[in-house]
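dude i think i finally got it to work??
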Amino acid sequence: MAFDTMVLTGKKSAAPHGNPGNRQIKEGDFILFDLGVVIDGYCSDITRTVCYKHATDEQKDIYDTVLKANLAAIEAVREGMRIGDLDGIARKIITDKGYGRYFTHRLGHGLGLGEHESPSMSADNQETLKTGMVFTVEPGIYVPEIGGVRIEDDIYLSKNGPVTLTHYPKELQIIS
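look at this
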C-alpha cells in the first residue's frame, strides 16, 4: 500500500482527510474510500465515494457537481497550462453550483515515488504542466451536515494530452 487506506462514512466523510470512527454505517450515508498501492516503486492514489442504500437529491447534486469538476479538469489538461488555472476550472464548477466554501483543499498533487510530491495542484501555483508529469485530480465537496464526496484520478500528461491511469467507475454507486 502507498499509504494507510482511509474509509470515512456519514458526517465523517465531510473531513477530507479525517479519522475513521466506530459508528455503524447508516442508510443514506456517503462512504468515501481513499487508497493507493505501490507498483514498481511508484505510488498510485484513488478516491471514490458511494452511497449506502439510497441517496437524497442533494447528495446526488453534490456528487454530480464533483464529477463534472473532475471530468472538466481532466479534459482541460494541456502542456504549458498554468497549474493554478487547472485548479480554477474545477473550483469554478463547484462554486457556480453554490458549494465553493465546501471545496476546502487543492485540486491535487504530484505523484511518483512518494504519494504526495511536487507540484502542488493549487490555485496559487504559477508553474506550468509539462509532458511526463503524473499528478492527481481530486475535487471534493464536504458539507458537514451531509458528508463529503471526492473523486480522485491519477493523470499522466503524455505528448498527446492527458491519460487517466485510474480505471474504476465514477458514476454514483448505491450499494446495499
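Residues 109 and 120 are 5 Å apart (CA to CA).
im so relieved honestly
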